[in-house]
Amino acid sequence: MQDYTNVSVLIVGAGPAGLAAAIALKKQKPDLDVAVIDKAAGPGNHNLSGAVLEAAALSKLLDPVVPNWAESEDAKAVLLSKVDRDDVMFFWGSRMAFKIEAAIKMAKAFRLAFGQMTHRGDYICSVSKLTGWLCKTAVSLGVEVLHGFAAEDILWDADRHIAAGVKLKDQGLDKHGQKQLNYLPGEVIRAKTILIAEGCDGLLAETFTAKAGLVRQSNQLYSLGVKELIRVSDAQYAKFGSGRVVHAMGWPLWTPLVGPAMFGGGIMYPMGNNHIAVGMIVGLDYKYCDFNPQDALTRFKEHAFVRQFIDGGTVVEAGAKMIPEGGLYAVPRCPDTQTIGRSNVMLLGDSAGFVNMCKIKGLHNAIESGIAAAGAVADGLDTPKGLARIYTKRLEEAGVIKEMETAKNFRQTVARFGPLQGMPLSVLGGWLPTFNIEPDYQTMMPAAYRLKPPVTFDKDTFTAVAATEHREEQPCHLTLRDETICTEKCVGKFGAPCITFCPAGVYERIHDQPKPANPSNCLHCKTCQRKCPFDNIRWTVPEPNGGPQYKTM
Ligand code: SF4
Ligand code: SF4
């Protein structure tokens, strides 16, 4: 590429959706100039997921550019094993565990949405490694993948309803916003077409959604996933099994008879080389002001079923990331045309919210959305104003919208009725009315989580193994709209929950004032942007090359 500041197609976000779009585009238009930018320092550094992958979309993407892709060395390193044992479990208290396979089978037989929660035949993978592989493939096809480029704003012409490009973040400012010797103004990358694929709750997607007037039928709901990679003994790893996935509902998030009542559950996957991934996903509509999803992870790891496999193990990597759970009703659309994007800008993957919570999966939809966007660009390169329309049609043809349709009420039903009643009710799926659920930050109450572990979670070690860092001298990327809200309203009522829920210990009280005191620890999970009970925190884009450096998450 001669000039990366002026391209035909600009893809923001080098994750599975963005890179799938780049690869699929090059398959159809080898001479087209395609650039992908990402704020992370290297491939996969900011990508974290469960992850269990339905491989059909990947196969469609890689065929024929990676001949016999499933047998390639890259596939063997990335797709760790095929799921041959699929344990969906219910934890009753801290000791008892039983499988609910029969309930899943019955739901499947009656074609109820809950029956989608099966994983047999899927691949267990590391999404950071998958991203690295896709990045390598894209580069081999001639895509310009530029890491260390953080998009800050979109140049949107509100009169013509078209985007002209993306503005990058300035670099080299000091803590007070003054230019240092290494100051570098954020460039503008001009592009005929922009694909936004920056992951969950990205600032560019939200800025574009507001500027282009897209609307959601229902508020987006989020969960936070916290995950650890634990090295265990040979005997423990062999006992767990290489093709087995565990998804566990119930304790410590909810029990059938008494609270607490939160949506979510624990996960366990084998990751090769005696490593087991252990994670906890918690819906951010939880109400407990002293709760932290890492506390639930601690309790999950203490459960007798889990403990047998990880006791004495060493945490070698960890991380946290939000998941967009709101489903089809929370996908931003153009109010006139119902397109997912507008004119020459399209929203892909988690930027749109293509996660199917009945499956607890979104990777396959992210890749499909990349392929659909590439098809739209290839079809309509000369008529950029119509690209979002072609893209939305292609998403329908690829089955993404149909699949999202099957789960469209699941999360809202659980949010409205709570997991105890909502999970059983959710089997009615699309027959239920649409609920407009309040945003996650409004659900907090001055209530205590009664299963809090006696020992405080070690966030320092968690962030150390996430290898997160930022240039210390830059302006803080987290701001409080009004500091007096913290001291006058929040501390007394809720006890400053940001200090508790931030998985990286970024927030602290300094002379009684809660503040983002340690921004260089930030994991870019965005939880504080969605869970501060007074919506008082604004997350802005930090300088590029900062943040976590995930390798096997
Ligand atoms: Fe409370 Fe939000 Fe202030 Fe933290 S930032 S103390 S959660 S109002
Ligand atoms: Fe997540 Fe916010 Fe904490 Fe950063 S500061 S790790 S975005 S909760």
Task: Give your account of this protein's structure.
- The protein is of the alpha+beta class and 553 residues long.
- It has three domains: 6-75 and 127-216 and 331-408, 3-Layer(bba) Sandwich (FAD/NAD(P)-binding domain); 79-126 and 220-324, 2-Layer Sandwich (D-Amino Acid Oxidase, Chain A, domain 2), CATH 3.30.9.90; 443-539, Alpha-Beta Plaits, CATH 3.30.70.
- Helix content is 30%, strand content 24%.
- Strands 1, 2, 8, 9, 10, 13, 19 and 20 form an eight-stranded mixed β-sheet that branches.
- One iron/sulfur cluster binds at residues 478, 502-504, 506, 522-528, 539.
From the structure above, extract its key features.
binds iron/sulfur cluster, D-Amino Acid Oxidase, Chain A, domain 2, FAD/NAD(P)-binding domain, Alpha-Beta Plaits, 8-stranded mixed β-sheet, alpha+beta, 553 residues
Topology:
Blueprint lengths: L5 E7 L3 H13 L5 E5 L13 E2 L2 H7 L10 H6 E4 L2 E8 L3 E4 L1 H9 L13 E3 L1 H14 L3 E4 L3 E7 L4 E7 L2 E3 L5 E6 L3 E9 L6 H9 L10 E10 L2 H7 L3 E7 L13 E7 L4 E9 L9 H10 L1 H7 L3 E11 L16 E2 L2 E3 L1 H4 L10 H18 L6 H11 L2 H7 L3 H16 L33 H8 L11 E3 L2 H12 L2 H5 L5 E4 L2 E4 L10 H5 L5 E3 L14
Helix pairs in contact: 1-5, 1-11, 2-11, 11-12
This protein binds iron/sulfur cluster (SF4) (2 copies).
The site of one iron/sulfur cluster (SF4) has 13 residues, from helix 16 and helix 17.
